[in-house]
From TrEMBL:
Localization terms from the record: Membrane
Broad class of where this protein is predominantly found: membrane
UniProt protein name: Cell division protein ftsQ
Domain POTRA intervals: 30-98
Keyword Cell cycle: yes
Residues forming coiled coils: none
């Protein structure tokens, strides 16, 4: 085969590929027929599909994944989202939801707070969320300290806690479901305090001080 013939063949193949790509782009050969939603516990799959803005029957190739993910991320429970194509006909939506570790009662409203201190939705609190009382001004240092302390506790431990009272950033006091009070102190050395907290739950006594987790005392 001469160089000229080879060049013509390569050009023909390129032209065919170009035409094929244009046809796939312009015409819905790969149509959206289904959605796959993962990572959702509090967000209904139907709500995620609708928020993506992707219509059934639309051209999967022309899917704007970034715009669709932005739409899903606008849902109150969603912290972040990614959207991708799954050929030949599926839109895949993956969501990361806020972890509701606490909540605040405010004028008849129940506002959920995530593990980063963000108040993100009015909703029924999950069992593992702890009610914050006292100085609960949104975005305040006191609120952030409380959330840092709460987030240090595993979900199964938080389920045994009723409230966390916030006096100031150095005075945090937990009250368990069985009315045991546990003084946490400041939101520092939280990992070790969480260990001490779990130990105290197994002990007799109604009032404990774990502000120094290496020297736990009864109050």
């Amino acid at each position: 085969m001469s160089k000229k013939t080879g060049a013509i063949a390569v050009g023909a193949v390129f032209l065919v590929a170009l035409v094929a790509a244009a046809v796939v782009w312009l015409f819905p050969i790969f149509k959206v027929n289904s959605f796959e939603v993962e990572g959702n516990e509090h967000v209904a799959a139907e709500d995620a599909e609708q928020a993506s803005g992707v219509a059934a029957g639309s051209n999967l190739v022309r899917l704007n994944a970034r715009e669709a993910a932005h739409g899903v991320a606008s849902l109150s429970w969603v912290e972040s989202a990614t959207v991708s194509r799954a050929f030949p006909s599926t839109v895949h939506i993956s969501v990361v939801e806020h972890e509701a570790v606490a909540y605040v009662e405010d004028g008849g409203r129940t506002v959920l707070v995530d593990d980063k201190g963000k108040e993100f939705v009015e909703d029924t609190p999950p069992k593992e969320a702890i009610q914050l009382t006292g100085r609960t001004e949104s975005g305040s240092p006191e609120m952030q300290a409380a959330v840092d302390a709460v987030s240090a506790l595993p979900a199964e431990v938080r389920m045994r806690v009723k409230t966390l009272d916030i006096e100031d950033t150095y005075s945090l006091t937990f009250v368990t479901e069985d009315e045991k009070t546990i003084f946490w102190g400041a939101a520092e050395d939280n990992a070790n305090k969480a260990i001490a907290f779990e130990d105290v739950l197994q002990l007799e006594g109604e009032s404990w001080n774990i502000s120094n987790p290496s020297l736990v005392t009864r109050r």
